[in-house]
Write a structure and sequence with these properties.
The complex is a heterodimer of chains A (447) and B (753). By secondary structure, chain A is mainly β. Chain A has four helices and 34 strands. Chain A has two domains: 80 residues, Phosphatidylinositol 3-kinase Catalytic Subunit, Chain A, domain 1 (Ubiquitin-like (UB roll), Roll), CATH 3.10.20; 343 residues, YVTN repeat-like/Quinoprotein amine dehydrogenase (Methylamine Dehydrogenase, Chain H), CATH 2.130.10. In chain B, 19% of the residues lie in helices and 24% in strands. In chain B, the strands form ten sheets. A five-stranded antiparallel sheet of chain B has the order 12-13-14-16-15, with no helix packed on it. A four-stranded antiparallel sheet of chain B has the order 7-35-34-33, with no helix packed on it. The longest helix of chain B is centred in the first third of the chain and has 25 residues. Chain B is elongated, with a radius of gyration of 64 Å. Chain B starts with a helix and ends with a strand. The chains are: A mainly beta (447), B alpha+beta (753). At the A-B interface, loops of A face strand 7 and helix 10 of B. Chain A: Its main location: nucleus. Chain A: Component of the NOP7 complex, composed of ERB1, NOP7 and YTM1. Within the NOP7 complex ERB1 appears to interact directly with NOP7 and YTM1. The NOP7 complex also associates with the 66S pre-ribosome. Chain A: InterPro entries: NLE (IPR012972), WD40/YVTN_repeat-like_dom_sf (IPR015943), WD40_PAC1 (IPR020472), WD40_repeat_CS (IPR019775), WD40_repeat_dom_sf (IPR036322), WD40_rpt (IPR001680), WDR12/Ytm1 (IPR028599).
Chain lengths: 447, 753
């Protein structure tokens, strides 16, 4: 590709990790080119049958403007050879379906392929399949449910769902999803987790499904296993009259009261999220964030806090670990989503690798499954917009979409996003919406 | 003395001249014209010199040695000489013998027969005029010291150097005077730098000047009178007119007489005072010129200086100053008054090509007009940097965190929300609107989890500040409802139920109160309905305000109703209500408990009174200067109070300092509705009917010497004004720098940092 004589050009070498490599030769690229021209160049050079949009990474940053602007910003001379990596662009998100709810949806889980679990403020956990059909609705909690997670236990037809609620308990529910859609879906609450004295904020399970973590407003984090106790481990401290009435009900079907394995205490204010670590070495690690503007790393086995990242006046609302598991993404009420690297944070206390600015309070953050693009994340905010970010370009979101559009001029709050296999479930004030977000046309649709 | 000597010398010389003159000079000798240089009279001159030479040392020694004694002798001699002179002048009036001019011969004219003087002929050749030949130096009349350092004195007429004659030292000079008989009649000539004998004319001039005679030798003071017009036959007989002399020439003037008589009469009548009597005022007066006050008329101001010309005004400006075609066009199109400059730069190759300036008269005229019409007033310019007047306040960004944006909003369906309270742990908020709805919602999510419906307006909602129990009070018309929120942990729920609906009622107070305490049984209670209800006295109206004491046992209510039953203090543990004031002056607007001391603030329309409840006496009256107090809050330390009024003012009181406000802030454009101190952060907020909330940093120092630091931080806008009402209530979240605000537009907003 020869450059036109009128324009200045820059020597460039293209690399890629996708299945569309270019020959490793030096190209002279006009500096006025943007992503579109570069993408056309790659497509023409490879003579792809179907044009594929590509994005370009220059030294770890996504190219947003022209090449000349980037060089001027970085102060890079014309002779220096740039190595540009390209990858398939993120397709614009597509709305798949809307699942209306009567009440606000506080949490969405789409970890189980083909199904969608939602927790609502009316205390009900609903199960949908991808055809927008309400399969099941179980009123598990009497108070608003705040969080739901699918416990990945190896069972084909019986699934465990953990839910946390304002009624100070978390519950573990079994859900039988028969392959035959004519049979009804059955659910049974098997146990209730009793520790907290304030509403629970979140519940999460580890990768093997053996343990649960609950975070509560009282500043405690409970560690639980998922075994179902045979009898009550915690005495019922309810008034006598209630107990009598409860006894009138079926005593056998009553969920057993379960006590935590251990309690992690260090947070001085509400804990908003607690998750298990990802990866092999981090299975026994837990990460939590709270309103005391700290992110803490816990050794679950010993129940001690091993590392604390203290930010200044950033009450954190949600936390997610990057797929590599080495850094955390945390939403704070100062309208930022910050990335904290635990490796550097050991030496530098306020190490925030990246800070993504939002126009409204970001309430939730989700990262793709481990096989997905490791630099991407989704954030939902109170202005009703879900944004897709790339950590390599923190200035603005890669793409964004507004959920529950047209309902009101003011956006409805997004309270939860979950992202698995190209499917994004968005829960919030207006119910649930399912969007398709994928990379380069390869959609991880449910199989 | 030198002059006298010279005088004497000249006298001697004169005497010496005189002595031989009558004797040896026959008339034929006089034919020789003498100058002393000529050698004609050498013998004679030698004689004279000899005589002089003999005499000179005598004079010299006398003058040196004798001094004053000698002077008497001199005088005598002088007198005698003078006498001789007189005799001589009498004898010979013409005194021709002294003349150095060519002496005339007196011969008898052949024609007239009268004696006449005949002068010798002058030969008109070069030698005849000796006046120029002895001045070879032609440098002119210049200061001769210019040649002091040079070997020559100047240049002669041919341009040759005139060399300086060798001059001896002082001894040579003396010897010269001794040897040279003409030394005493010679003088130093600067032009040739040597002594030169004085000529006869010069000596004669000197003599005449000494004797106070006319220096001109030819002047005769005694010339005979020549009668030109008088005398016989020389009378004037040529009158211009033959008319006889008129009478008026010799008769006194009648008109003059009349004028004089007029003056005389005026003098007589005293109209004219001929000589004013000399008074003290006519004396020359001296006075102290600094005694008077200095004039305060300002000194005339100098005219403002016209602007100096710049490069553009040059006749040959650089190219970049020349206007382009568009600029020139634009300049021509604009009005004269609107032009940026009143000329157009033009370029001329040379100054002589510059035409006459056509605007000269016009420009001078306008300049004069400016000077004439412009009132020139001396302005006393204050040398104050305007930035120095701004108080040194820290930057708001350094005082983070404080609320900056609206995070979420909870709607009350357009009903005015007047009551708002945040739970002590900062997790829940309760808001009550005028439709009777009370909503309980999460502060951070904004989801209403429970709603109660009451009859009538909700006037006040307040959480109990205790953390071991959890309930809040809702004030509606003549009733106070105590409500337990849902989802409490069992110990807290039990404690709350026990507190509000005890199994055994405390003993009834001695004096029965008109307030009835009605509670439902703890077992039957739920969060749906109030567990305890206080029935305030009838016609007490809507409780406008409910305040808790910090410890959560006492609460006070202010009702809007008329009469005395406005203020009540209720004690939960004793289930007893009392009215603290029997008689109240003015209508009570607000009450407040002191956070640490048993003090009680009561705000009437204009004053805030501070009572000690334990001693039951008035401590002080604070005068905010507000016409109608609308809101009030006390700092968590208890030493400071802020009071807001409907007249837009917010007063900060330092209770230790004064009864007057320490600072009055008037930043809102409409009436203030609510003020609140943050319990832990150094923040307070004020809300107003202008729809804005203002957040202030208020740092209070433990040190009594340091004044509180109040810094305006942020104006939060986002509430709509409805029916002239803006933000009715603001409350801080206890543990976070977050603000919850309730507006008349039915929205409750949470502002996050």
């Amino acid at each position: 590709m020869a450059s036109t004589s009128a324009e200045t050009s820059h020597p460039v070498v293209f690399t890629t990790q996708t299945a569309y490599p270019l020959p490793s030769q030096k190209f002279m690229i006009p500096t006025s080119w943007k992503r579109y021209q570069l993408s056309q160049l790659v497509n023409k050079a490879l003579s792809l049958p179907k044009p594929l949009p590509f994005d370009f990474l220059v030294r770890g940053e996504i190219l947003r403007g022209t090449l000349a602007e980037w060089c001027a910003e970085k102060g890079i001379g014309e002779e220096e050879t740039l190595e540009i990596e390209y990858f398939e662009s993120v397709m614009p998100p597509q709305k798949m379906s809307t699942l209306p709810h009567e009440d606000w949806v506080s949490s969405v889980s789409c970890q189980l392929p083909g199904y969608l679990f939602t927790a609502s403020y009316d205390g009900t956990i609903r199960t949908f399949d991808y055809s927008q059909k309400l399969l099941h609705s179980a009123a598990i909690h009497t108070a608003p449910t705040t969080s739901i997670c699918l416990v990945p236990l190896s069972s084909s037809s019986k699934h465990f769902i953990a839910s946390a609620s304002h009624d100070l308990t978390a519950r573990l529910t079994t859900l039988s999803l028969p392959s035959d859609s004519s049979k009804p879906v059955e659910s049974q609450t098997v146990t209730s987790l009793h520790l907290h004295t304030a509403p629970l904020a979140s519940i999460s399970a580890n990768a093997s499904g053996s343990h649960l973590l609950t975070a509560s407003w009282d500043g405690l984090i409970g560690v639980w296993d998922t075994s179902i106790p045979a009898s009550d481990e915690v005495p019922a401290d309810e008034p006598a009259e209630r107990k009598k009435r409860r006894r009138v009900e079926d005593d056998a079907s009553r969920p057993k009261r379960k006590a935590p394995l251990s309690v992690l205490k260090s947070h001085t204010a509400r804990v908003s999220k607690a998750v298990f670590g990802r990866g092999e070495g981090a299975a026994q690690e837990a990460y939590s964030c709270g309103f005391d503007s700290t992110i803490r790393v816990w050794d679950v086995e010993n129940g001690v806090c091993t590392q604390t990242i203290a930010a200044s006046s950033k009450p954190f609302l949600d936390l997610a670990l990057t797929p590599a598991g080495t850094s955390a993404l945390a939403c704070a009420t100062d309208r930022t989503v910050s990335q904290y690297d635990f490796r550097t944070a050991a030496t530098n206390i306020s190490a925030s690798a990246a800070s993504l600015l939002h126009p409204a309070t970001p309430s939730c953050v989700a990262v793709p499954p481990p096989s997905g693009a490791e630099h991407q994340l989704l954030t939902g905010a109170y202005d009703g917009i879900v944004r897709l970010w790339d950590l390599r370009s923190t200035k603005s979101a890669v793409t964004s979409f507004r959920v529950w559009e047209g309902s009101e001029k003011k956006g409805k709050k997004v309270l939860s996003v979950d992202w698995a296999r190209g499917v994004v479930g968005v829960g919030g004030e207006g119910g649930v919406e399912i969007w398709r977000v994928g990379e380069g046309g390869r959609m991880f649709l449910g199989n | 003395m030198g002059a006298a000597e010279l005088n004497k010398k000249s006298k001697k010389r004169k005497a010496a001249d005189e002595a031989p003159a009558p004797v040896p000079f026959p008339e034929d000798v006089g034919l020789d014209m003498h100058s002393e240089d000529e050698g004609g009279d050498e013998a004679e001159a030698d004689d004279e010199d000899d005589g002089e030479a003999d005499e000179f040392p005598e004079i010299d020694t006398r003058s040196d040695s004798e001094g004053e004694d000698g002077s008497a002798g001199d005088e005598e001699e002088d007198e005698s000489e003078d006498e001789e002179d007189e005799e001589e002048s009498e004898a010979d009036t013409e005194d021709d013998d002294l003349r150095i001019y060519p002496k005339p011969k007196t011969v008898i004219s052949d024609i007239t027969g009268q004696p006449k003087r005949v002068y010798p002929e002058i030969e008109p050749d070069y030698d005849s005029d000796s006046s120029t030949e002895d001045t070879p130096n032609r440098v002119g009349n210049i200061p001769m010291h210019w040649y002091d350092d040079l070997p020559h004195l100047g240049y002669d007429i041919n341009g040759k150097k005139v060399l300086r004659a060798a001059r001896g030292d002082e001894l040579d000079k003396f010897l010269e005077t001794v040897e040279d008989p003409s030394a005493w009649t010679s003088a130093f000539d600067k032009n040739i730098q040597m002594d030169k004998p004085l000529t006869e004319e010069e000596l004669d001039l000197i003599r005449r000047l000494q004797e106070n005679e006319n220096p001109d030798a030819g002047y005769n003071p005694y010339e005979p009178t020549v009668e030109w017009f008088t005398g016989k036959g020389k009378e004037e007989v040529m009158p211009l007119s033959a008319a006889p002399e008129p009478k008026r020439r010799w008769v006194p003037s009648k008109w003059e007489k009349q004028k004089v008589m007029k003056i005389v009469r005026a003098i007589r009548q005293g109209r004219i005072i001929p000589n004013k009597p000399k008074t003290a005022s006519s004396q020359p007066q001296s006075y102290a010129i600094w005694n008077d006050e200095p004039s305060n008329v300002p000194a005339p101001l100098p005219a403002p200086k016209p602007r100096l010309p710049t490069n553009a005004e040059s006749y040959n400006p650089p190219e970049e100053y020349l206007p382009t075609e568009e600029e020139r066009k634009q300049w021509e199109e604009t009005d004269k008054e609107d032009r940026e400059r009143d000329f157009m730069p033009q370029k001329y190759g040379a100054l002589r090509l510059v035409p006459a300036y056509d605007q000269f008269i016009q420009e001078r005229f306008s300049r004069q007009l400016d000077l004439y019409l412009a009132p020139r007033v001396q302005r006393v310019k204050l040398q104050i940097d305007p930035n120095s007047l701004i108080p040194k306040l820290p930057s708001p960004s350094s005082l983070k965190p404080f609320p900056v944006y609206k995070s979420l909003q909870v709607s009350h369906d357009g009903h005015r929300v007047r009551a708002l309270s945040v739970s002590p742990d900062g997790a829940w908020a309760v808001s009550g609107d005028e439709n009777g709805n009370v909503g309980l919602w999460e502060v951070m999510v904004g989801k209403e989890v429970k709603r109660w419906k009451f009859q009538g307006k909700v006037g006040a909602v307040e959480w109990c500040p205790r953390t071991d129990v959890s309930f809040f009070v809702v004030g509606i018309e003549e009733q106070l409802h105590f409500i337990i929120p849902p989802n409490l942990s069992t110990p807290i729920l039990l404690a709350t139920q026990t507190l509000l609906a005890p199994a055994t009622l405390p003993p009834a107070p001695a004096t029965p109160s008109p307030v009835k305490w009605v509670s439902t049984a703890a077992a039957a209670s739920s969060s749906d309905s109030p567990i305890l209800t206080l029935h305030l006295p009838p016609s007490s109206g809507l409780p406008k305000q409910v305040v808790w004491h910090r410890k959560g046992d006492y609460l006070s209510t202010v009702s809007s109703g008329e009469g005395q039953g406005g203020v009540w203090i209720h004690q939960i543990s004793r289930r007893h209500s009392q009215a603290p004031f029997r008689k109240v002056k003015g209508s009570i607007q607000l009450v407040l408990f002191h956070p640490t001391k048993p003090h009680f603030f009561v705000a009437t329309q204009r004053y805030v009174r501070m009572y000690n409840l334990a001693e039951q006496k008035l401590l002080k009256t604070l005068m905010p200067g507000i016409r109608w107090i609308s809101c009030m809050d006390v700092h968590p330390s208890g030493d400071h109070l802020i009071v807001g009024g409907y007249d837009r003012k917010l007063c900060w009181f330092d209770l230790e300092l004064s009864d007057k406000p320490y600072k009055i802030l008037r930043y809102h454009t409409r009436a203030l509705r609510s003020v609140h101190f943050h319990p832990t952060y150094p923040l307070f907020a004020s809300s107003s009917d202008d729809g804005s909330i203002q957040v202030f940093h208020a740092r209070v120092y433990n040190d009594l010497m340091t004044n509180p630091l109040i810094v305006p931080l942020k104006i939060l806008r986002g509430h709509n004004i409805k029916d002239g009402l803006g933000v009715l209530q603001v409350r801080w979240c206890p543990r976070q720098p977050w603000l919850v605000s309730a507006g008349a537009d039915g929205e409750v907003a949470v502002w996050c940092s």
